[in-house]
Amino acid sequence: MTNKAEVLNPVAITGLLVAAMRADESTRPDRLFEDPFAAILAGERGKDALATYRAAVGPSIPIIEVRTRFYDEGLERAADDGIRQVVLVAAGADARAYRLRWHSGTRVFELDQPAVLAYKAAVLAGSEPTCERVPVPVDLAKDFSGALRGAGFDSNRRTAWVVEGLLQYLEEPTVKLLFERIDALSAAGSVVLYDAVGRAALRAPQLQGALTMMKELGAPWIFGSDEPASLLPRWNVQAIDPGDIGRPLGRWPIPAPPPNTPARPLGYLLEARKA
Ligand code: SAM
């Protein structure tokens, strides 16, 4: 097993980049969360990617930091509601299986590319997860249901799914199939937390630096949607403008749009519940 980031492909490196952002956030006095594993998971490759990102983008909107907080709180709500089965789809360098305080009996499945899960296992060797953690190496562009069930996933139990920072890297038909599979595997009462880049973001002048950097890294953003709730047509979906979470936390540099303006956020955070 290797802990060398060199074996990771460009889209896997994006996971180290966001881990580097979480590492930085964890050092702030006004941090939105604390991730003690982020720095080691990001490693030098993640830190370098963050330096390149900051040089390209300049002072950026803390979307990853606000997003992390949204997912942490969504998982806490699901746990309070009694859900004990969690799937981190495209887990990357997400350390929630190690850093959150899970109820006993919680099982957390982590789906990602085999090389990413091998890297994580090597880097976190010696650290104890705070839940029953089950890594499941898969290609998410293909049908992962068999691998997930084979690893012990029970589709009769309610599940909290986390699809964080993934969709923009996938082709639209792949995104649709991914959500059909999640729906098919979800018992009534399950929850899906996910985020989507708005279509406007793919053309927004203030994001051109980030978009160019991602393209040059080899992980271009290709999927965006202004109707991300439609990915789960029979679910109750709440779509939130990240600014509406970031502003009350004092961490959002863009003022709220005037009332009655047609909303076109650059991105969406979504919480969906299966009836
Ligand atoms: N969810 C994590 C987070 O927010 O920290 C990781 C997000 S990272 C930006 C994107 C992740 O998607 C990477 O870990 C990458 O390996 C994974 N990924 C992208 N395409 C994939 C695929 N076809 N199969 C498995 N994993 C994939």
UniProtKB/TrEMBL annotation:
Membrane-spanning parts: none
Specify the superkingdom: Bacteria
Q: Which InterPro entries does UniProt cross-reference here?
A: Ppm1/Ppm2/Tcmp (IPR007213), SAM-dependent_MTases_sf (IPR029063), SAM_mthyl_Trfase_ML2640-like (IPR011610)
Entry keywords, A to Z: Methyltransferase, S-adenosyl-L-methionine, Transferase
Q: Name one GO molecular function term.
A: methyltransferase activity
According to its UniProt record, the EC number is 2.1.1.-
Record bears the keyword Transferase: yes
Q: Name one GO biological process term.
A: methylation
Main role?
Exhibits S-adenosyl-L-methionine-dependent methyltransferase activity.
Q: Which family does it belong to?
A: Belongs to the UPF0677 family.
Record NCBIfam families: mthyl_TIGR00027 (TIGR00027)
Question: What is the designated name of this protein?
Answer: S-adenosyl-L-methionine-dependent methyltransferase
The species this protein belongs to is: Pendulispora brunnea
